[in-house]
Amino acid sequence: MPTTSELVEQIGGSLRRARLAKRLTLRDVSGKSGLSEAFLSRLERGHVSTSIANLIRITRIIGIGLGDLFDGGGPRAAAAGYVVARAAERQPPQAIATTGHSYQPLITGWDGQNVDAFILTFPRHNRADVMTAHEGEELVYVLQGKIVFQLGGEEIPLGVGDCVYFKSDIPHMGKNVGEVDAKVLMVASPGRGPGQEFGWWNAPVAKAKRRRAK
Question: In terms of domains, do 135 and 190 share one?
Fold first, then answer.
């Protein structure tokens, strides 16, 4: 099983190979993502890690799935129509230095898969308070701890076993409000309609007035 630093290098290398295969320059990706060329270069060389939001943004611009950044079934899995991921072989959680969050992809299918699934850990002490919005749909299922999930101006308390399914173009974010790190299963369908490949990411979004759900 690779270490965290090895995983960071793997992600960077996968991004670079995919970008070059699509004949995109760092300037192309920078212009569409809002991330600097210098940062993208360091990311591809495995010198920095980044948030899952940035990875989703970059992979959509390049035209690959988030799961394509990790070892997976590839063509064989695509031909079979399914892929199995064993717990002992799963990639370790990837830390997000800027927020303290971490995420762990559950499975990699094949090029062009339409759904991403991962475990996202919200630290006990949140270091970020940013809402995001994008095309597609998401499901959040709480595995451990307590969170408040904000959708637009509404705050929704969620505990173990609770679930919320929503359209991703509603500004949203989650915050840990419990005494332990919170873990959630997130399943995202990114929405790749014609002409939407580069226009879906609208984060950060200004905070809306909040009202707590009953």
Answer: yes
Cα 175 to Cα 172: distance, rounded to the nearest angstrom: 10
Question: Each residue of 132-145: pLDDT tens digit?
Answer: 887 789 999 999 99
The verdict on residue 101 lying in a domain is: no
Q: Is residue 24 part of a domain?
A: yes
CA distance 148 to 154: 10
Q: Is the pTM of this model over 0.70?
A: no
What is the CB neighbour count within 10 angstroms for residue 67? 23
From 85, 105, 137, give the residue that closes a domain: 85
Q: Write out the residue range of the structural domain in which residue 147 sits.
A: 114-214
